[in-house]
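Weekly sync notes, structure subgroup
Attendees: PM, AL, DS (notes)

Item 1: joint prediction request from the bench team. They want all two components modeled as one assembly rather than separately. Inputs as received:
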Amino acid sequence: MTPFKYCRVASTEEALSSLSPSHRPLAGGTDLLPRLKQELIAPETLVDIKQAALPRGIERGSDGLNIGALTTISELAADRELRRDYALLGQAAELTATTQIRNRATLGGNLLQRPRCWYYRNPRVHCWLKGGDDCPAEQGHNEHHALYGDSPCRAVHPSDLAGCLLALDASVTLSSSDGERQLALSNFFTLPEDEHRQENVIRDQELLTSIHIPAASEGWDSLYLKTMDRKVWAFALVGLAVLIKTDGDTIEDIRLVGNGLAPIPWRLTSCEDHLRGTQATPDDLDAVIASLSQDAQPLGGNDYKLDLTARMLQQALTQLLNRD
Amino acid sequence: MRVAAEQSPKRLEGRQKVTGAARYTSDVMLPGQLFAGVLRSPHAHARIRSVDAEAARTMPGVHAVLTPENHSDICWYGEEVPLFAAEARFVGDEIAAVAADSEEAVRDALQALQVDFAVEDAVLDIEQASAKNAPTVHLGADSNRVADPEDYQRGDVEAGFKEATAVVELTCTTPVALHNALEPHGCNAWWDGNDLHLYVSTQGLFAVRDGIAEKLGLAKSRVHVHAEHVGGGFGAKQVDWKQTLIAALLSRQCGRPVRLMLDREAENLAVGNRNSTRQRIRLGAHGDGSLCAIEVEADLNIGAYQVSGEGSPVTGPYQSLYACPNVRTRQTAWYSNCGPAVAFRGPGFVEGHFGLEQAMDELAHRLDMDPFELRERNYTERDQVEDQPYSSPQALRRCYQAVREAFDWSAARSEPADRHLRRGVGMAANIWMVGGATPPGQAEVIMQDDGAVTVLTATQDIGTGTRTVLAQIAADTLGLPLERISVVLGNTATELKAPTSAGSATLPTMGPAVRGASEALKDRLLALAAQRLQTPKDQLELKDGAVRAGAAQGGDSLSLEDLAEAAEPGSLRCSFTFDESAEEVALRTFAAQCVELEINTLTGELTVLRMVCAPDCGRIINRRLADSQVQGGVIQGLGFALTEQRLADARTGQILNANLEDYLIPTVMDVPEITHAAVDLPDEAENSLGVKGLGEPPMIAAAPAIASAIFDAIGVRCTDLPITRARLLAALRRKENA
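Output from the run, pasted for the record:
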C-alpha cells in the first residue's frame, strides 16, 4: 500500500474543490480501504467527506424522496416509512453485508463500489478491468460471474440496493465545482468498455451527493430476494428486485432488475414483456424462463444462475400475487 | 474416583481473553523490536534465476534482507529444498525475507526486491497432476506421484462381492479446506547472548524447540519457546513452518528482536491446508445388511510438498469402522503446485468418512433399512487391522444410543409449513484412530508457602481449555478450591515433557501426569500431618484446604498454610511422569451425529435446523469445555459440508479466496442449535482418569450426516463437497427431470 495523505473537509465547496484523479473521497471506506490494500488504487490524498455538510438522511417531497449520499445502509434499513413505501429497499438494505458494515457504509459508496471479483481484487492478477488484456474469469472460476452484458469484464456489480433503485427509476445527483448534473441510474451505470473500464460514468472531480426516487405510485408492490452461499455476509449470487402492479389476478405492470447477473444492475426487460398483462400462469412462466436464456452468455461455472433467477422469479411472483 | 465432572468451571483465562488482556504472540513487543515480512512467489511454478536485493538493502529502516543466496544450507520439507526457494512450487512459496523498523518499511522493501523468474508449467489438481505426461511439480521427477500407493488388504474382496446381494458404487470428492485459526502463525525471536527466545503461536513447544535447535545447530537447552496463549491451531500449528526460523535468523543478524506474523493471505497460502480427495468406493452387503466387501481407491492432492511426518489416512475408516472380512484399499498422494497440506482436525478421517458414510447411507436406502440398524448389524468390538479389541468396545454403541435418544430419531422429522419445503434427517458415525496419550507427559505440583498450589507443566493451551482442566484435576485431588490452583504452561524452560497438542492427545497425556503429581503431593502432606497430629496417615483426610483427623482421633485439623510452614523447604513439590499407553488393546475414539435440515426445493436454500453429536471421549472432566469442543468441531464440519473450499485458478495457480471474505466459514446465522449428547464413558484401559481426547471426533461425521439428511429430504445424493447452492440446484434439477 502506497502512503497517502489524509485530510478532512468541513464544507461541500471544500470537498468538491479538493477532488481530482489523485484526491479521492473517503466516506464509509468499506470499499475504498480494501481497494487501497489490494493495490487497486494509490491516491495521493484521501479527502474525508463525512463532516462536509453533504446531504445525509431521507428528505420527503411531493415528487418523491431525496436520500443523501452519506446516509448509511443502517439508516435506510431502520426507516419505517421507507420500508412501507418501498418495501424492497428496506429488504435489500437489511440483506446487505453485516451490521458493522451497514453502520459504516453509505448509500453513495454502495452505488459506487467496484466489483468484488476475486481476479480483480487479487494484486497478483492483472485483469482486463485493471488495464490488462483479458478477463481471467472467462476460463477460470466464474461461479460468481456475469451472465449478461456485452463487456470484456465478466465481474458483477456487488450492490443489492443498486438494482432496487434502478427498478424504482431512481436518479443520482453528481456534483462538482462546475455545477451539478442529474442522471437516471439507467444512464449512470454503463458496461465497462475498452476506453472506459468502469461500471458508471462518474468523473474524478465529481461527487455523488444524493439519490432521488420518484414518488411511490398507488397500487405498486415490491420485493427484493437475495440468494447467497451462506445465510448472511455474502454478496448476492443473484438478487432480484421486483416492482409489480396488479389488477385482480392480472399483472398490469412489472419491473424486474437482477443483481449478480451483469457488470451493472440488469433490467430483465424481456421477462417484463412476457409477464405484463398475463396472470403468470405456468405457461406464461415457461415463456418468461425461456426468455432469460436469450441474451445470456453463460461461462460454465455460472450457468446455474439462469436456473436460480427463474426459480427466484417464481418465488417472488408467488409471494407478490399471494398464490400458494 | 470421580473428578469434578458435573461441576463445570468456566475457562480460567476467559475474562482475560474477552477483555483483550490475554497476551498472544502478536501482542509481545520487546525493546528494540523489529518487524519482518516474507517475499512470496507470485507464480505457481517458477525457477528463480536471481534475486536483486541491492535497492531493498539500502532503504531507510531496513536492517536485514535474506535471499536464496543466504542460508542455502538450511533445508526444509524433509530436507528436500532450501529454506528460500530456488524453484518456487506454489503461489506463496518463500523467496526472501526482510527485517525493518516498521511493518510499512518491511512492505516497501519487499516491493523493492527484484526477482528474475523463469516460469514453468504448473498442475493444480488431482486430474491435472495424474494426467499422462503432466508437467511435474518437482522438475526432473518421473511423475507427480508422491510415493507408491499405500495398499491394504484383508480377506478376498472379489469373493466378497460375489456373495453380495447389494452393491453400492460411488465416487465422492472433498475439497481443499483451510484451517483459518483466528490467530495466524507467527513468531517473535530474540537472542539473549547465545540463548534464543521464541514467542510462537504453536501447538507444540517442544516440536519448535527441537526443530529450531537442529536447524541452527544449537543445543536444545539454548532454545526457549514461549506460548502463553494460542488462538487456535486445528493441526496447522503442529509443525513449525519457516517463519520461526526466518525470524530467528533475522534476529541473529540484526542483534534485535524480530517479529514475523503472517497475514491472512499468507496464512491461507503457505502454512497448511486439508488435502482434497477423490474416492472411488464399492460396498457389498448381504440381504441382512452385513458387509461382505469394501473397496476404495483414494487419490489425494497434497500440494507441492510432503510435510515431514505428515500422513492423511483417508482409507483408514474403510478399514476399521465396520466389521467386514474382505477389505481392499489403495491410497495415492499427488503433488500439485499449491501450498502443502498438513493435518487438519481429524486428518484423512474427515475426508474418508464422507465417502464411506455416504456409501453406507446409500446401502441402507437400497436395503430399505434404518441406518442405525445397518450400523448395528456391522458393529465391531475389535480393531480389525491391528487384530486387537478396542480399549472401550462398547463406546460407539453408546454414542449411537446417546445420539438417537437426544435427537429422538424415531420421531425425528417435523413437518414444514410450505409446500416447497422438504425436511430431512440424516446420521453418520465415525471412528478416530487416536485420542489416547502421546507419552511422556510430565508435571510438577508445588505447594506454596501460603498453601496455594502451582501446577508446573510445559504443555500449551491452544484454546481448548487445558489450563482449566489441569487445574481442576489438581484441585480435585488435593481437596482445594479451584482458585487456589495456578497452572504454569507455555514455556519449555522447565523441560517437563509434554506432547504436541495434536491427535487429541493433550488431556489424556497431561491429565494423568497432573493427577500423579498431585497424588504424590497429597501423600506427602498427609505424612507430614500424621507426624504433627500424631495420627496415623490413613485416619486423615485432605479436604477444603486442611488436613483433618476423623472424629475418633479427636477431629484435630491442620491448615495447608500451617503444613507448608512446617515443611522442610523444597519438600512440598512432587513430580510425576506419565509414560504408559494401553497395551494389547486398540485405543480409539468414536462419535455419532444426527442432523435435521430443511431445503426449499424452489430456490435451493438449505437451512440446517439442528445437529446432535455424541462423541466418545472417555470421562468428561469439564462439561462446559466439552460442549465447547463439540460445538466447534460440528461447526467446522458444517463449513466443510456446505461452504468451505479453497479455489485455485486452474491456469495460473492463483488462490482466489485466501481471505475471510471469499472463503466462507459459517456465520452464526448458518449454525443451528448444536446439542452435545454426552456419553461420558471412562476408558480405564487408557489411564486411571479414564480420559481421552475430544478435539477431533466431533468434526468427523458432520459432513456425511448433512449429506445424508439432504438425500432424505430430496432423494438426491450429493457426492461432491461443499454442497453449494449451485450443486444443490443441480441436484434438484436432476430430481425434477427424473
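Discussion: The longest strand of chain B covers residues 421-432.
Action: AL to compare against the crosslinking data before next sync.
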